[in-house]
Structure formats: structure tokens, C-alpha cells
Amino acid sequence: MTTPTPVLTALAIYEAGKKAYEAYQGIVAFVSLGREDPTPEEEILAKLDVLHQDFVALQGRFDEVLEAVKQAVRVEQQAYVLGLQRDLDGLRGRARTATDELSSWVADGRKDPLLRAAADDNSRIAANTLLEGDSFFYRPDPNSTESVFDHRLAYIAYVYALTVRFGVIAGLNPQYREDRLAREELARHAARLDWVFLHADQAIEPYTAGTLDPAGSYFIGYQCVDRITGFDTGHDDTGWRPGGQAEFDDARAYYTDQLRADMRVKVGLAKLMAFHDTVAYWAKDPRTPAWSPWIPVEVPDAMKSLTGASDRPGRTVLVWRDPDKAQLRTTSYDSTATAPAWKPSVAISAENTVPEESRPRALSSGPGLVTVLMQGEDNSIYATRTDPRQPTGWPAAPVKVSGDSTTISFVEAVATPGSVVVVWLDHGTLTLMAAFQDATGAWGAPQPATPAGAMSLVSDLTVACPSPGVVMAIWARDDRTVHSVTYDSHATTPAWSAPAQIAEFPGSDLPSTIHAAGIGDGKADVVWLGKFGAVWNIHYDGGWSAPAEITPQRLTKHGYPWTIVPAVTGDRRLNVFWEGRDNRVQTIYRDPQQPNWSAPLRLGQPWWSYAEFTAVPMAAGSVSLYRVDFGSEIGDVPKLLTSFYDTATPSASARIADARALMTRAQTLWNLPGPLREEAIARAADGLAIAREVVAQDPDYRATLASWLVFPVGTYLLAAGHYDEAVARMQEALGLYDALLQEQPDSDDLAYKKAVTLVNLAQALWAKPDHEQGARRAVEATDLLRRLTAKKPGYRAGLASWLVFPAGTYLLGTRRYDEAIAREQEALGLYDTLLQEQPGSDELTYKKAWTLVNLAQALWGKPDHIQGAQCAVQATDLLRKLAAEDPKYRPGLGDWLMWPTIPYLRQSGQRDQALTRAQEAVDIFTALNATDPATYGPKLAEARKLLADIQAG
């Protein structure tokens, strides 16, 4: 049987979005890890190459899309469609060129800045052309002179170009989320994807119609058509159902939502929604709270009946039934680990011991303590708890906790600090039973929570802890009433209270399930899905409220297996989740001490069919959702996905790690050839902004901030000629070190770092130019380091260097000759002492010679020309000895001969010595010119001229 063209074109659009979405997520995953091996560019290029190969493999399907669009217009209009496709192919080719250019830049050792810039430009142009050009998303209308929206051709090119653009952005700056301009660019693309979705969604037309029988039944027929692809579901109907006008109207609304949701999946709009959510999330300011997109979790096992718990901040434990082995398995993830990753799953029960109808429960009663409860093949309740002494982290086998009873149903459990409680209905005696686990992990004997016979007509059961040590068991009855019993472990004689009715379901409503959650401050809530698609709630605060709708109607699905999942986070926010009629997870929340619930929020794209999900509360305000997607008829395979609420409140250490990564990136860019230094400065500024935010919350990071203000931030600004900004950053660092030294006056490390800051500030001030302040700060730096050197001789070499530059140099530059001479002579004495300890050190010998050259200039300026010339001669004599052993010193010797030695000798009347040294300079530069004429040719000409001048004079 031939697949209809609308189905083929819809599948092509779906596959294009899927491949781009997977590549985008792969780039995000790598960048999020902050790894440097392989480098970001190499890993991202690999992802983009896979994307290219995937699109090449799909070209046959893309050709079918082109043919379908051609068939949708008149023959004379097809030239326009072909021209449109040609333009789109050109944009895809330009994006591919950007990938090739980035690859060539990396392969060539990152040497050619033009390749890097070209990759940036071509990727931006390809994506932004589709961002700005609405005409790409329209085709001629065969029945009018107007154009009609048809995104199919442009969408294929756009998701490719946008993914390449994101790859280039992330490759060139893995910390792009700290770059406002990069975020704004991606946010514009997220808005564009939303625009495409809204226009494409308007073409989906669900039809519902039917008949209402006054006798109390109704009939609805339904169909859905996508006007862009031509996809038609065909007609179907509900058959006659009992109900009146309200049920009839609700059913029509339900099928309208359901038909649209299914069509969104079939024609690829669900993948477009997922792609949009991913782009929008990673384009947001990381300081803005938001839900993440759904992302895959790499767990290879088949999954049913998923549950989870968190036993400490950042750690998640998932438990599920493996349907292939009829056993429970588990895995865990610790986001605080050095290299976060899901651990290989392990079995926590034997094979063929967990029946299909068993619904495991995972709960945490404290750090490192996760208890799992399940029903076995014999219908008894079994429990197991984490045990770090065991190789797998779990006991060899679960233990039975329900005693001898096997007529068990409605198993529910709840954890309170140090304890777990499981409750169940014993059908044999119609009694609510309970068992407690203590802090050691031991289980007590089962005990009745209600008198015998009290649990007749039960339709569902739930349990909650409104406060530590207090347990509420709540159940619904077939007579539409809700009842409860309470156990307070703090009572003098702890016991279960007598059963009491706490509510009655409104109207004719009888929900299939109810769910409870304890807030932790003495309050609790019960929620359920109402008959007409609203979430209902009763609230406990010393007494129970009347039932109330807490969402609009026509949101939720009703009846089995649709359920509702509550989750209370560490800040006592109660979150409620359910799968809506639009096949999307929806949520509301209520903050502590607040009477009102939030408006409903939809999370992510629609799904093809019912999917199990669980909610795991994490740190304060944060909760993670995990969903088992069972696949679809259009090619998806079952997989586990997660979405989490990002509170945008990462730890100080995590944010400092982000800042450190930016500083590292800045240094990498600074050291690359080409005009990348302004980009390096921008990355360092991004890191600095983060560090300032962290210090505002945690002053312990002030020393880190001060260090970065000097290097790389201040140093790079100085080197790039941004003198005022460099001075400001150095002064900010100085203020931080002064404050820290007031708190830690004996810290040599802080005193040294202050001295380093003063030296750098001196150079920035001098370059500004503010020579007087520059010299003052340089002297201040050497004075501070001199005091440290008195205690720690290891600083002597550093002091000697600073005495020469910048202190001596700046004093000389401000004509303070005596002070300059004093510091140069002090440096000379330090180098003489160090050379006595390390007589074979070429480095120290060179620095002594360098000091003599600077001293010569200070003496000459005093003026003391005889001593100045003598010091210059001594410097060149010393350097000549080094050059005889190591040729690398020969260019420096030639330079020092040319200045100041020969001029000082001539002007002090020592012509013969000047002539001898001029000939030496000519000889040196003649030899050097033979291998590097570009560098040394001009110097050789200058030396020859100087020699001739001396000879002529």
C-alpha cells in the first residue's frame, strides 16, 4: 500500500525538526558540562556534521515536500516555488559553508582569524535571513492573487541554519549565556519559531458535531484536517453516551483539544514546539527562573510504573518496573558531582517478582535514605532501602512488611524525617492497615488504622504528612464522600484517630483517584481531577475547607489512567502536575502562606499517547519531572525524558565556576592570532559581572574577584589601550584588598596581591597618562613588597624587578633622578646577593645587566655622565658574556650598544670606545640580517650610519 503524500510530507517535516532538535540538544549537553577535551569547537563540529549527514539522508523526503508544494499551486506558479527552493538551498549551503570554515579554522590550529570571522558571518546571515524574511514561509494561493502560509520548505532550511548558527555561537563562546547580545540573538529566533508555530497551528482545523438526545444521551462525530499538508484523520464518532448538555459541550471541547494535539504530533509541530522551547530556554538570562525543555535521559532499560525521590540536594533516585524482567530497577544522578552522569541501573528485586499492576513508591526519610515499596506476585507488600554497605547500594532482597494478609489493595506510602509509613486496604476485614519503618530501617508489625468494616465502598486511598511525625490517611468512597484518620507520633499515647468524613465530592463527580500532599507546617491538601476538566482541592489548616475548583474547566482528562501528581519543594511550595487534554503536561502551584493558586502553565510539547510521569522535589523551589514516552505511530521509540524548574539560584561555587570558565576562555582568545582581543575582553567582562554578583551574596569570594580585576580584566584593558577602564578595575581590586587586609592584617598573601595590584595600577596610570600618580603607585608597590621581603626572602627577585620597572623607570620619567638611582642601586644589590647564591643563573645575570642599563640612564639624567657611561659599558660587557654562550641574547646586546652605550660614550668624550662598540653593533646586525632581513635590516643600516658618523667625526 502506498503511503499518502500528506503523510510523507508531514513525516519529512517531522524528521527535519527532530534531527535539528537532537543536534541542538547535543550541543547544549556538551556545553553544559563545561568540558575542554575535546574542545568545544571539535565536539560541536562533530554534532553539526551528524546533522548534515542526517539532512543528506533525508533529501529524498525533502524532495517529496517540494513536489507536494508544487502540486499545491497552479502550473504557472511552480516557477516561484522552484525559485523559493533555490533561495532556501542557498541559505542551507551558506550555513554548511560556515561549518566548513569553522572546521578549517580548527584544523589549521586556529591561526587564521579570517576563517573564524567568516564562519561567524555566514552562519549569522543564513539564520538571520530566514529570521527576517516572511516571504520564505508563503507560497502562491492557486485560487487567488494572495499568498498563503506554508512553512514546509522554509522550515527545513531554517532549523538547519539555526542549529548551525547556535553551534557556531556556542563553539566560539561556550559561555554564551553570559553574553547579552548572544542571548538576544537567540531570543529573536525563539520568537520566530513561535511565529511559525502559531501560523502553522492555525491551519489545523478540528471539526466536532453531534446530537443531544433530550432523554439523556449524546452522540459526537469528529474529524481533523491540516490545511497545509492536506493530512486528514478521517471521520470517527463516539457512539451514544449518557449525558446532558454539560457533558455534550465538554465532550466536544475535549475532542477539539485532542484532535489538535494529535495533529500537532503527526505534522511535526510538536517537534517544532520542542525546538522552540530549547532555543528559548538557552536564550534566557540564566538569572531568570523558568522550566527547562524536555530532554532525554540516557537509561537503556524498558520502563513502566516510574517513581522517584531525592535524598539530598542535587541527587535523584529513579525506580521503575522493568516489564521485560518483571523486576524493579533503579538508577541515580548527582548534579553536584564533578562529572554528573546517570549511573548504570541495578536490580533491587529478583526477576519475575513484581506483577504488572504493582505501582512502586520511592520515598526519602533523610540524607542517603531512600525506601522503595512494592507489591509482589503474592499481593503482599515488600520494602527495600538503600544500604551503602552493599555492592549495589541496596540489600540483596526486599522484606515483607504487610504480615500475613494477601487481600491487599490501594497501597500508599509517605515519608517523614526518620520514618516511612505505608498504608493499605485489607479487603478481608475492610480495615485500613499501616506499618512504620523507623530510622534504622526496621519495620514494625502491621497495625489497624481503622476499626474492622470501616473501609467499605472505598474507591481510592492517599496519605500525607502535614508536619513531621503526623500522618493522615485519606480515602474516597463510592458514595462520593471523603474520609480521614490521623496518627500523631508526638502524642503521649500515639494512636490512630477515629475515622471522620472531611468532604463530599460536588455534584455527580466521583474521581478515579485522589492525591494528598503535606506541606510540612501542619497543613495538607487533597487534589483530584474533576468531571469537567478542572482540578479540585480541599485544604487542611486545623480543619478542612470546602471543595473548590482551583483551575478553569476543560483542562484535564478524566478517569483511569489519567492522574495528578503533587510535589512539595523545600520552600513549601505545593506543585500539582497532570496531563492535559492537549496531551501536554500542565502545572499550577501555591506558595506557602498564600491562599491563591497560580494560573495553569503548559510544559513542553504534546505527546502521542498516555505517558507516565513522576515529580521529584529537589532543593528549595525546584522540582524535576520524569516522563516515560511510550513512542508513537510515526517513528518515535520509548524513552525517558526530564524537565526541571530552574530557580536561577545556583550556588556561589557553581557561578564562580562559570566565571572561571569565562576567564579561561578570555585567555584562550587573547592568545590566538588575529583581532580577537576585544572579544577576549568581552568574555573577561562577562566573567567579572558574574563574580560581582556572587560577591554581593557571598563576600568570601572577594579575593577571587580582586584577582580577576587585575588579571585578566585590567591587564587586557591596559594592553588594548582602554586606560580609564583599566585604572577603574585596578582601583576596585585595590579597595577589595584593603578591606580584606583590615580583616586579615597578617596575611602575607593578601599583602603581596595588593602590591601586584599597585604595580599594575601604576602602569595603567602611566599609560593614561597620569605620570605623577603612576610613579607614586609604583613606589608604593615596592615599599609594600620591601616589607614582605624582610620577612620572606623569596620575594627578593620580584622586588628587584619592580625596583627597576616600573618604579625606577617611572621615577626617571618624572625627572626624580636621585630616587630612581637609589632604587636601581637597591635592585643591583639584590641581584648581586642572589647571584652569590645562584652563580650560574643566566636569568639573574641578564636582569643585573638590565638593571645596569636602567641605572645608566638615571645617572645620565642626573646628570652624572661619566658614571652613566660606565654603567652602560658594564651592562653590555655582562650581556656580551651571556651572548657568547647563548645567541638569543645577541639582538639585545646589539640594541644596548646602539642605545645607551655608544651615545653615552661619544657624548662623554670616549670616542675610541664608542667606535669599537659601533663596529661590534654592525657585526652583530650583519649576522642577524642574514637570517631575518625584515627585522634586522633597518637596524643594520642604523648601525652602519652610526659607525660612519663616528668615523667621520
Account of the protein in words:
With 953 residues, the protein is α+β, with helices and mostly antiparallel strands. Strands 7, 8, 33, 34 and 35 form a five-stranded antiparallel sheet that branches. Strands 3, 4, 5 and 6 form a four-stranded antiparallel sheet that branches. The protein has a four-stranded antiparallel sheet with strand order 9-10-11-12, with no helix packed on it. The protein is elongated and about 130 Å long. The protein starts with a helix and ends with a helix. The model has no long low-confidence stretch (mean pLDDT 91).
Computed over alpha carbons, the radius of gyration is 38 Å
Strand content: 15-25%
> Could you say which structural class the secondary elements and strand pairing correspond to?
alpha+beta
Coarse shape: elongated
> How many beta-strand segments?
35
Query: What integer is the average pLDDT?
Result: 91
Distance between the termini: 106 Å
Q: List segments where confidence is low: pLDDT < 50 over at least 5 consecutive residues.
A: none
With helices defined by DSSP (H or I, 4 residues minimum), what is the helix count? Answer: 22
Fraction of residues in H or I helices = 40-55%
The major pleated sheet works out as: 5 strands, antiparallel
